[in-house]
Give the backbone structure.
Amino acid sequence: MASPVELSRSLPSHGDVRHAENLYAKVSHAIPAIEWPIYAQDIDAIMTLKRTRNAVVLAHNYQTPEIFHCVADLVGDSLALAREAMTVDADVIVLAGVHFMAETAKLLNPGKTVLIPDQGAGCSLAESITPADVRRLRQAYPGVPIVTYVNTSAAVKAESDICCTSGNAKAVIESLGVPRVIMLPDEYLARNVAAETGVEVIAWSGHCEVHELFSANEVRELREDYPGVIVLAHPECPPEVVAEADFSGSTAAMLSYVGDNRPSRVVLLTECSMSDNVAIQYPELEFIRPCNLCPHMKKISLRNIRRALETMSGKVEIDPAIAAPARRAVERMLAVK
Ligand code: 13P
Ligand code: SF4
């Protein structure tokens, strides 16, 4: 998988960009010219605000191209964003992503101001489980370690032993050296990881509302309609979909696969904007796009990033009693190589 450093190196240096127009050539395949003047105003304003507030924008791979390629300082998957959040030399972090990502950034940077441009940017996985559910599972399976996907609230992380992302789930589970783990809350990720590790995994019934839409039949149809297509699937997809794919991995791992293998025709079974962002980087490749959008990721826009920086609104705060055990679970994850 590409390291966070490699991912961030692929971005333009915004310090050198004087005018948003300079960026348009890069994103012109993804953004119609008629929309650009509106974006350009917000991009210029965000560039200025970043300097005056000493702020950085961290953007997840599912953010739209005008955010991902034009105002983000660091981009990546959940794991990269968590790692990068710890290294930023800024007073303010704007998290262009969903709420659990902003909470993770705050857990790792308690002294910094972390802003999320829309506090309502949630996640169907994070919504699927409560701290009380985790406590009940701990009682039902005494002594079995609880591994919690980062796509959860800080309160759920606080009840768990260690976190994982889709980029390190296998390594985290293997690091525990036990025959059985509880893995929450994504049923499909748990089943996909169980198949890779041979560890018995007790799963929860949460699903990602974007990835659960893909089916094995759809993959077979894609192969018929687009001969030679290479199919990459996120591990939040149902196991039957992953079984039909050529490769499965986190969003960063998919990006690395494309960079390393340069498949002439490829489909990324994941959120829609990811293909837009990768296609900008590899214009010579053909991206087939079954388009499933994450409504939560799409709540973030240039306009509300600008507003968050102007008004310093959308501050992420975490109750210290929750933050301490939640941070421990995230830090244990980051210690796994
Ligand atoms: P990644 O960690 O692979 O970027 O996944 C995050 C996510 O929310 C996928 O839906
Ligand atoms: Fe959550 Fe799925 Fe959206 Fe990722 S794509 S943030 S897992 S709902």
Q: What stands out?
A: Residues 216 and 244 are 6 Å apart (CA to CA). The first strand starts at residue 55 and ends at 60. Confidence is low (pLDDT under 50) at residues 1-17.
